[in-house]
Amino acid sequence: MAHAIWSGAINFGLVTIPVKLYTAVRTNDLRFNFLHKSDEGRIYNERHCSVCGEKVEYADLVRGYEYEKGHYVTITDDDLKGVRPEATQSVQIVEFVELDQINPMYFDTPYYLEPEKKGRHAYALLRDALMDSGRVAIARVVIRSREHIAAVKPNGEALVLELMHFADELVEQKAFDFPALNEKVADAEKKIAKLLIDTMSVDEFKPDEFHDKYKEDVLAMIEARAAGEEIEKPEVHRPAATNVVNLMDVLQRSLEQSKARRKKGGEAIEEDDAEAAKPAKRKTAAKKTAAAAKPKRKKSAA
Q1: Residue extents of the structural domains in the chain
Q2: Can you give the pTM of this predicted structure?
Q3: 263/87 Cα distance (integer angstroms)
C-alpha cells in the first residue's frame, strides 16, 4: 500500500475537499556502489575539514551560505524555521487557466490527490468541472517545509497535483542560438515533412510500448559478467547532420521507408501527392548511415 505524504485539503472558494497526497512516479534508476579497484572493498564517503584537515562527524556540521568568495554566513535550524512557510496542509487554489496557456516546461513532478470518503462528491465535482472547462487550477502548497506553485489537473478518474517550476528557475531561450521562426523553408520540403509526419502518426500514444533500453542492456551486461562472460564493445557510428543540399532526398527516402513499414504492418496507406513533391534525381546519392552494432557476448577463457 502506498504511503501518503500528507493528509490535507483542496481549498477553492469556500469549498474544502479533504485529500491525501501520494507520489505518482517512482525512480527505477540502477544504483552502483564505489569499490576499491584492487580488492573490491566498499568505499564510503568521509567528511574532512578543508582548514584543519580533521574528520568531521555529522553532528558537528552547520549550514553555510557563501555570500562572497571564501566568506560564509552560518545558518541554524532555528533560523530556517523562522522563515519557513506555515505548513497548512492545504492545496490553496488561487486561479484557473486553460492548460494550453501554460508552457509545458513549467511542469515538474506529479502527485496523486486521493479524496477522503467524506470529500468524494466535491472531489468528483471539481474534477468534472475542470474536464468540461478545459482548465487547470493553479495552487500554492507546502510540501516538506517548502512552498511550491502547482497545477491541479484531471487525469482520468483522478486529480493530479503537479508541482511547477517558478519563472526564474527556467533558463531563457534567448541564451541559445535557435533558427528564427521566419527561417526560409521551401514549400516542397515542408510538404514532404508533413507527409512524413502523417505516415508516422498514431491514433493513441501507448507508453507501455516504450522501455528503458539502456537499463535493460546494462542489466543484461551485468548478468553476462556475473556468469563469467566478456562483452565486446559495439562500434558506435554517429550519423552526420543532414546537409541542406540533400535534405529533400533524405525526406523522400524517409517517407518511402515509413510507408513501407506501415504497409508491412498491414495498415492501409492512402494515396497522396508525395510523387508530385519528389525532387529531381541527383547523380550522387547520399551516403547511408550505418546502424550501431549490438554488443556481442563471448565466453571468457577458462
Answers
A1: 6-26+84-169, 187-299
A2: 0.66
A3: 58
Between strands 71-75 and 146-155, the pairing is unpaired
Query: Mutual orientation of helices 187-199 and 247-264 as an angle, nearest 10°?
Result: 20
Render 216-252 in DSSP notation, one character per residue: HHHHHHHHHHHTTEEEEPPPP-PPPPPPGGGHHHHHH
Helix, coil or strand: residue 114: strand
Fold for 6-26+84-169, please state it: Ku70; Chain: A; Domain 2 (2.40.290)
**Per-residue pLDDT of the chain in tens (302 residues, 90 and over written 9):** 678 888 899 998 888 999 999 999 887 778 888 899 899 899 888 899 988 989 998 889 999 999 889 889 998 888 877 766 565 678 999 999 999 999 999 999 999 999 999 999 999 999 999 999 999 999 999 887 788 999 999 999 999 999 999 999 999 988 888 888 888 888 888 888 888 888 888 888 787 887 878 787 888 888 887 888 877 776 766 666 655 557 778 778 888 888 887 777 666 555 444 454 454 444 443 344 334 444 555 554 43
The rounded radius of gyration (Å) of the Cα atoms in the chain is: 28
- Burial label for 299, CB within 10 Å (0-12, 13-18, 19+), is exposed
